[in-house]
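Run log // design_07
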């Protein structure tokens, strides 16, 4: 007896003396539980405060299969299938998983539905069912500004678009709660509890106008479908301060069902896709010529339908006899040969430097997700034919936002304003904090900008290539663009990029609208494909912003043709 008791005594000394801290720590691991307190993600709203992305409370429904009696599985599966709207066989399989203590049945159930399920389970004496609170991201507009906004993953982190760019700000900081629980998971009364409260995410307010965004998406989606095109984009900007009112793409992304969409359509093509701008680039050549004093809008030019550049002969879009055009007429009729002649008067270096000043070869600075800067080769590396083709927009690549920014600069009297998409955010107290003013850079003189605007207004006139963009009662300035499109699949130029970009009212610019359609099949000229989209969107935006016509007529404009 003494020997046996001495063994017990030794063991007690070991447990309560020598190894007491080790066992106490192991017991604490089993008893003390940490639970993450998820922070509520901030909202993304349009300029008027309408929620485009919001967070709502939901419930996760789960089951502990080890507590479900085999005899109750069929009845329980029938009940849950009805309440959750899921196939009975899927739920039955989860209820019968051997050795499992946790199976998620639904991740985002409305609180009222979850409450009804738990009440029904209690009446029917089902065991093992449980719910826990969680937040889910909701997009009331579905695909409204889908690729611009982006989406969040199952872990609540932003995966694309603004949800990714502003993820840290929107997400906030999760908290934590530490409690002591018993074997069955119930909380032990009168035990310690530590709570670190979560910090809710901040809201982000955009410059986007919900109504203009809707109109832009509708117009570009209809045109892409009608022409059998691959994709298209529309941008609407404020000419004075660079605020973006709409940034639409087709196809657009349904944010409430993004998993069904191919990853290649998750991106915001208005800032990620680069293309050769074609004739919309001629305004930069015109601006360089006017700024240098090499040409004036009324300078007379004899323009043939072809011109030799190094070892190539480049032609206008259609054959014609030698035309007597003014420089304004060269832009209005979108003459490639006339534009090359103008570029030769200013030289490669000056043209290159002007493109750099307009923002080519660098990211626009909007800060949007995966924003691209295009490609502008150094003028010293231009080939013989590039010295001509770059003047009319082939041999250089840009994004839709870069092109829109060029026309915003001209509309704003030669001052480029960095495009802005975020109006501001809320601070720690929930008060709105406006974003810092956008950077402003003088690119060309006010006179040169005014002269270019006049030339662009002529391009929308009866003899211009953009006459389908004209809007009754308003003075409109703009430019068509039709460029050969490089296609990696055919490893060459196998399609077209059709563009129209302009501003209104031409004499007191308020809005800039760009429409670009990639690889249309039924027509390909920018004046046929993109100009009608511009007209629809600009007309809607002018009405939406309550911008009246200026009630003025163009002053004695420079004629397109000259008799000399």
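design_07 sequence
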């Amino acid at each position: 007896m003494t020997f046996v008791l001495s063994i017990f005594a030794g063991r007690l000394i070991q447990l309560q003396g020598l190894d007491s801290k080790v066992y106490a720590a192991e017991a604490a691991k089993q008893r003390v539980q940490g639970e993450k307190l998820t922070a509520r993600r901030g909202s993304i709203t349009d300029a008027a405060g309408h929620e485009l992305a919001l967070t709502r409370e939901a419930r996760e429904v789960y089951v502990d299969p080890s507590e479900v009696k085999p005899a109750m599985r069929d009845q329980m599966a029938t009940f849950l299938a009805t309440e959750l709207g899921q196939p009975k066989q899927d739920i039955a399989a989860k209820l019968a998983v051997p050795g499992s203590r946790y199976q998620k049945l639904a991740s985002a159930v409305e609180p009222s539905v979850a409450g009804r399920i738990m009440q029904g389970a209690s009446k029917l004496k089902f065991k093992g069912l449980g719910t826990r609170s969680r937040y889910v991201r909701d997009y009331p507009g579905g695909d409204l500004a889908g690729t611009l906004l982006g989406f969040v993953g199952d872990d609540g982190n932003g995966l694309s678009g603004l949800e990714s760019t502003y993820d840290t700000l929107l997400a906030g900081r999760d908290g934590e709660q530490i409690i002591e629980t018993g074997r069955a998971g119930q909380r032990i009364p009168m035990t310690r509890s530590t709570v670190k409260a979560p910090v809710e995410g901040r809201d982000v307010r955009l410059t986007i106008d919900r109504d203009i965004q809707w109109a832009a998406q509708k117009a570009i989606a209809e045109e892409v479908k009608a022409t059998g095109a691959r994709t298209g984009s529309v941008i609407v900007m404020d000419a004075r301060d660079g605020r973006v009112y709409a940034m639409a793409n087709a196809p657009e992304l349904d944010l409430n069902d993004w998993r069904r969409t191919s990853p290649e359509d998750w991106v915001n093509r208005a800032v990620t896709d680069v293309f050769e701008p074609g004739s919309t680039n001629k305004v930069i050549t015109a601006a360089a010529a006017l700024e240098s004093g090499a040409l004036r809008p009324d300078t007379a030019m004899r323009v043939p339908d072809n011109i030799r550049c190094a070892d190539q002969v480049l032609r206008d879009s259609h054959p014609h006899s030698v035309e007597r055009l003014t420089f304004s007429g060269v832009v209005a009729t979108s003459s490639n040969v006339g534009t090359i002649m103008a570029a030769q008067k200013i030289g490669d270096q000056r043209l290159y430097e002007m493109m750099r000043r307009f923002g080519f070869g660098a990211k626009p600075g909007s800060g949007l997700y995966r924003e691209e800067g295009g490609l502008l080769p150094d003028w010293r590396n231009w080939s013989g034919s590039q010295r001509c083709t770059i003047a009319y927009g082939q041999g250089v690549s840009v994004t839709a936002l870069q092109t829109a920014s060029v026309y915003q600069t001209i509309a704003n009297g030669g001052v480029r304003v960095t495009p802005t998409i975020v109006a501001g955010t809320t601070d720690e107290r929930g008060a709105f904090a406006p974003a810092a003013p956008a950077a402003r850079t003088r690119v060309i003189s006010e006179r040169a900008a005014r002269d270019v605007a006049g030339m662009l207004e002529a391009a929308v006139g009866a003899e211009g290539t953009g006459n389908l963009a004209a809007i009754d009662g308003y003075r409109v300035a703009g430019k068509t663009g039709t460029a050969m499109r490089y296609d990696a699949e055919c490893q060459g130029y196998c399609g077209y990029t059709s563009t129209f970009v302009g501003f209104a009212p031409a004499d007191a610019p308020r809005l800039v609208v760009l429409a670009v359609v990639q690889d249309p099949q039924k027509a390909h000229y920018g004046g046929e494909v993109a100009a009608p989209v511009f007209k629809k969107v600009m007309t809607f935006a002018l009405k939406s912003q309550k911008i009246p016509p200026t009630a003025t007529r163009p002053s004695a404009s420079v004629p397109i043709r000259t008799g000399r």
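The chain has a mean pLDDT of 92.
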